[in-house]
Design a protein that fits this description.
This protein has about 90 residues and is α+β, with helices and mostly antiparallel strands. Strands 1-2 form a two-stranded antiparallel ribbon. The model has no long low-confidence stretch (mean pLDDT about 80). The protein has one domain. The chain contains one helix and two strands. Helix content is about 50%, strand content about 20%.
Length: about 90
């Protein structure tokens, strides 16, 4: 069974995801392989978009959290309030 493997890397070469797609049997010439890839193209593009958005969201959340922590550490007027509820 023919298979293609898609590896998604960031700008630094870090692997974000690896996806495999089965192309099926009886793909004995380049034209049939190309047709099957074109059939899978919408699914592949959805997967790539999803992986890239997830990676960017994770990166953004990490940066936002780091900035929030560092700004609290530098702010001498910051106050922490701890409340306990219960009996």
């Amino acid at each position: 069974m023919a298979q293609i493997r898609l590896q998604i890397l960031d700008d630094n070469g870090t692997e974000l995801a690896t996806k495999s797609y089965n192309l099926g049997d009886s793909l004995d010439d380049l034209s049939r392989i190309e047709q099957q890839i074109e059939t899978l193209r919408p699914e592949i593009l959805i997967d790539i978009t999803s992986e890239l958005l997830s990676a960017e969201q994770s990166k953004h959340e990490k940066n936002t959290f780091s900035k929030a922590r560092s700004s609290h550490g530098n702010n001498k007027d910051a106050q922490w309030v701890i409340s306990f509820f219960g009996s």
